[in-house]
């Protein structure tokens, strides 16, 4: 035990004192003296002996004291027991106990019947009890999982498994519950069974997980209902981590049909070359780290269904998580609107050009037509009927109709609206159209609603429908079916966004369809442009459909077209629906004789030819006429002849910065009873008819016939209050 030879006899009886630890000798001597003094027969003393190698060995000395008849101690014999292992075990137990008591983890032991055997300090403080109070309880009183009724089954499961881990709810002394994670262990000792538990309060963890689940559910709800599509994938493996429903909808591929980026590209880009090029561009953009290279705007895409879309895609790398978030937006409607805007702007520019040409051309035609009428008057008086003069007049009228088409396209033609039934108007129109369309065209007239009211210029609407019907006839040279259909429709926001000029509301739809040759997409893109025609040279001006487009838009409507080569074409005209009305039948108007007068007229016209012709005509009719070249010149003339004029006859659009309406207002201020007659081919500053109605001025559209001029002048002069 002490490292000495066991068969060597001790030198004397006090040899043990020399081996005892010096610090322990005083205590040993005191206990020996007490034993001898009290006459006890046994003695147990713990002390240390020094090992041969120098370290101390704890021992328990047990001695028997032999006494004589008088009780005096004669001798003492005994043995020393090595306590090294026991001391080590006690030390380990103290260390373990100190560690458990200081642990930030609830630890408790139970007997096999479920009553607490021991608990650490943290368990007591966590549950709100003292250690002594807990030792009086059954574990089921604090663990909702291990109630007394459930305990036997739970204990048997633990015996079989050895270890169980689960989440339960523990009850504190104040009856408040909290989430806890339990690690339970069964331990079979030599003399008994012990079940011990490690419990950790996971309330914060459970709360955080619940909040994370709620947040994840919230984010997923937002993403699933967002107008943009979202997908998350790993750039290295290509594995998709998340794909939203909108992402699936935009690309037209089900979420379950692809699991990697390569699967996705194979489904979306069926052309291998396009697929490889797109994938390479995306990966290169992501690798560059430049924001502009990670965004692709208005990419044309053909879906697996065959539909075409335009998409904008943004790919955002999450470098810390080694993920890529891909967002996609369907911008098809935006691209279509941009294209409609470009087309509208182009049509507006061409329309302004066409209107300007028509304005100048009207002045030229007016000069031709008035000269022709004067020639006819002179030749009639001389008994001469000249065929060339009549031909010139006929050609001038044709040119005037062409100019009118230009103005309709440019939306510069004044319209005269009334409320009428479209079905009744088309009934009357079709009676005249049958001969024009020919016997080889079968006309089907379908009225889906009996009465459809619009507020429009019926003459212009008839002209638009006639133009479309004639085009349908020309598309069916071998014959076919022309269907004319009318119905009431409701246009919603989504439908309105698809067509330029469309808007939500109630409309009357006029559908004209044919079974003709149809048109390819490249022709459809230009059919409403002025001077664009597919007819042979000399067979079309290219203004027909442009004029139809102008007429319909001038009535705050719009027109659409669908066409398939070899199948036919369908045009749809949409006009705002009006409240029902009973239009008054037009009374026949007798053509009055040309009458003049003796009034004084201030004639304002910037075109020399038109001004001189009007001057000649009006003087021939007996009027006193003073000419002026523009508004400022007219004010000068007025100052020379103040108050002498009965009527102002002025063009609307004139150079010099003053319109005819502005001139009329200034002169009316000087002479309130002054009669005013406005004339114009068109005005870019204001609608002449609107200006005339607003200011109660008479209006005469160019080019006009001599009879029309004389009638309008007399009506204006003879009217008591203008």
Provide an overview of this structure:
The protein has 722 residues and is of the alpha+beta class. Helix 12 crosses helix 17, helix 13 packs parallel to helix 14 and helix 14 packs antiparallel against helix 17. The chain has 22 helices and 25 strands. Helix content is 41%, strand content 25%. A 5-stranded antiparallel sheet has the order 5-4-8-7-6, sandwiched between helices. Strand 9 and strand 10 form a beta hairpin. The chain has 5 domains: 68 residues, Beta-Lactamase (2-Layer Sandwich), CATH 3.30.450.20; 113 residues, 2-Layer Sandwich (Beta-Lactamase); 122 residues, PAS domain (Beta-Lactamase, 2-Layer Sandwich); 159 residues, Histidine kinase-like ATPase, C-terminal domain (Heat Shock Protein 90, 2-Layer Sandwich), CATH 3.30.565.10; 119 residues, Response regulator (Rossmann fold). About 2% of the residues have low confidence.
Tag the structure with descriptive keywords:
722 residues, alpha+beta, Beta-Lactamase, five-stranded antiparallel beta sheet
């Amino acid at each position: 035990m002490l490292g000495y030879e066991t068969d060597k006899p001790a030198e004397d009886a006090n040899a043990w004192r020399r081996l005892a630890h010096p610090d322990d000798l005083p205590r040993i001597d005191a206990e020996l003296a007490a034993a001898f003094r009290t006459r006890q027969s046994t003695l147990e003393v713990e002390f240390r002996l020094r090992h041969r190698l120098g370290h101390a060995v704890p021992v328990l000395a047990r001695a028997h004291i032999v006494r004589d008849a008088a009780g005096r101690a004669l001798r003492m014999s005994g043995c020393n027991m090595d306590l090294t292992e026991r001391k080590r075990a006690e030390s380990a137990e103290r260390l373990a106990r100190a560690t458990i008591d200081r642990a930030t983890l609830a630890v408790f032991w139970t007997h096999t019947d479920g009553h607490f055997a021991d608990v650490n300090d943290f368990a007591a403080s966590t549950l709100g009890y003292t250690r002594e109070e807990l030792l009086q309880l059954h574990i089921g009183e604090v663990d909702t999982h291990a109630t007394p009724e459930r305990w036997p089954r739970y204990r048997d499961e633990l015996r079989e498994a050895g270890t169980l881990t689960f989440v339960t709810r523990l009850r504190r002394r104040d009856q408040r519950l909290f989430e806890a994670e339990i690690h339970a262990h069964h331990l079979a000792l030599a003399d008994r069974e012990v079940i011990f538990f490690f419990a950790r309060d996971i309330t914060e963890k459970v709360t955080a997980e619940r909040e994370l689940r709620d947040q994840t559910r919230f984010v997923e709800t937002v993403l699933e209902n967002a107008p943009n599509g979202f997908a998350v994938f790993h750039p290295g493996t290509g594995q998709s981590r998340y794909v939203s429903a909108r992402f699936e909808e935009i690309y037209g591929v089900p979420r379950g049909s692809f699991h990697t980026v390569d699967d996705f590209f194979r489904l979306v880009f069926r052309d291998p070359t396009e697929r490889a090029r797109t994938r390479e561009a995306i990966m290169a953009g992501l690798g560059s780290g430049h924001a502009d290279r990670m965004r692709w705007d208005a990419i044309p895409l053909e879906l697996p269904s065959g539909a075409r879309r335009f998409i904008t895609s943004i790919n955002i790398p999450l470098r810390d998580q080694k993920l890529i978030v891909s967002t996609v937006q369907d911008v098809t409607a935006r691209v279509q609107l941009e294209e409609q805007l470009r087309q509208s702007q182009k049509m507006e520019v061409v329309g302004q050009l066409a209107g300007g040409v028509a304005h100048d051309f009207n002045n030229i035609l007016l000069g031709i037509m008035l000269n022709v009428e004067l020639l006819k008057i002179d030749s009639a008086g001389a008994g001469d009927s000249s065929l060339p003069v009549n031909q010139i007049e006929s050609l001038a009228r044709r040119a005037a109709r062409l100019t009118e088409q230009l103005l309709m396209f440019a939306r510069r033609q004044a319209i005269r609206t009334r409320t009428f039934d479209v079905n009744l108007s088309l009934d009357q129109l079709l009676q005249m159209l049958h001969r024009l369309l020919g016997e080889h065209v079968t006309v089907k007239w379908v009225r889906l609603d009996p009465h459809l009211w619009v507020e429009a210029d019926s003459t212009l609407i008839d002209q638009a429908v006639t133009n479309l019907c004639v085009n349908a006839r020309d598309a069916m040279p071998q014959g076919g079916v022309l269907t004319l259909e009318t119905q009431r429709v409701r246009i919603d926001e989504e439908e309105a966004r698809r067509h330029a000029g469309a808007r939500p509301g109630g409309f009357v739809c006029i559908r004209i369809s044919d079974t003709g040759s149809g048109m390819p997409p490249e022709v459809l893109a230009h059919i409403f442009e002025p001077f664009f025609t597919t007819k042979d040279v000399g067979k079309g001006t290219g203004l027909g459909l442009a004029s139809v487009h102008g007429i319909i838009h001038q009535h705050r409507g719009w027109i659409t077209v669908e066409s398939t080569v070899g199948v036919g074409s369908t045009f749809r005209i949409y006009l705002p629906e009006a409240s029902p009305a009973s239009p008054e039948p037009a009374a026949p108007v007798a053509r009055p004789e040309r009458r003049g007068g003796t009034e004084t007229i201030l004639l304002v016209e910037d075109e020399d030819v038109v001004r001189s012709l009007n001057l000649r005509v009006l003087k021939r009719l007996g009027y006193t006429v003073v000419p002026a070249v523009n508004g400022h010149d007219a004010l000068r003339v007025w100052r020379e002849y103040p108050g002498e004029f009965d009527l102002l006859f002025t063009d609307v659009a004139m150079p010099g910065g003053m319109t005819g309406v502005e001139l009329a207002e200034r002169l009316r201020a000087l002479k309130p009873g002054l009669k005013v007659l406005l004339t114009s081919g068109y005005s870019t500053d204001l609608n002449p008819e609107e200006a005339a109605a607003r200011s109660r001025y008479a209006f005469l559209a160019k080019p006009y016939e001599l009879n029309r001029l004389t009638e309008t002048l007399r009506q204006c002069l003879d009217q008591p209050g203008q």
